[in-house]
Amino acid sequence: MQTMQAMKKICFVGLAAAFVISLLAQGTVENAVEVREGGESSSNTLTVTDVAVVSAKRLSDYGISGLTNRVDLTTMVPWDIVQLIEFLAHRGGLDNIVIGKGVAGLTTKLKLTDVTVAEALEIVLSVNNLAYEVKNGIITIMTDEEYRLVNGVSFYDQKKVKMLELKYADPTRVATMLEKIKSAIGTIVADPVTGTLILIDTPDKIREMQIVVEKADIPTVSRVIPTETKTFVLQYADIEKMQNEITAMLTKEAGSLRADRRTRTLIVTDLPHNMRRIEEVIRIFDQKSRQVFIEAKIVQTTLN
Q: What is this structure's pTM?
C-alpha cells in the first residue's frame, strides 16, 4: 500500500513538473523545475513544496566569444534599433546573430561606459521590449510578442511555482477563491484526488494566495474525496480470498471494503480509476472452474 501511494505521488509530481515546464519559457529555461523534498512549511497543517524556477540565462552565461568584450556607447539622438544591434555585434565579433523581422524602430538615448557587449545588448533589448534565444551558439533576437507566440509566455515574466498539499479543504473550491487573487499571468492547478494545489505566479501574488490557502485549510473543513461505491455478488470465487486480494488494492485513506459471507457479497468504495482495476480483478477470479471430461470404456476380450 505504501509503495502504491508513493508511486501516485511521484506520478503526480512528474505530471505537475511537465505542466509547469510547458507554461514557462521552454527554449530559454534550463533545469527549469527542481522539487525539494520536505519543502518549507509555514503552518502545522499545510504542506508546502517550493518548485524552484530558474530564469533565462544571461547572455554572458553562454560562453560565446566576444560577449565579454568591453565597449563604450553613447547615442545623443535616437538610433535605429537594428543598426545599434549590428554595431554591438560587430564590436563583439559576433558572426552568428539573427535579427527577427519584427525588430524595428528607434531606440532611446543611451550612455554606457565600460560595459561588456553582453550587458550592452541586454540593456538595449530590455528598454525596447525585445527578447532573445541562444541555441547552438546562435543568438536570435525578436520582439517579446514573437517570443510569446513561440513559448506561450513573455520573456520578461518573472514567475515562481509553489505546490501546496491540503489536508482538509477541497482544492477545487480553494482554486476558485484564488482565481480572483492571481495576476493576469498567473495559473492555478487543482487536483482533488491528491488534495494538491499548484500556484504559478509572481512571488508577491503567491504569498497572497498562500495566506488565503492557510486560512481555508483548517480541521473544521471537510474535503470530500470523489469516491464511488459498487456491490459485487460472487458466483464462484472464494469470498475470503477475494476479500484479501481487494483489501490489498484499496487506496489508502480513501478505499474501504465490506464483505457479507452469507450472501457472498462485496461492497467496495474507492476512487474511480482504482475501482476499474478492482472490477477487472474480480472478473478474472470469479469464474467457474474448468472441469475435465473423462470418457472411459470397458473392453472385454475372450481368448480361444
A: 0.45
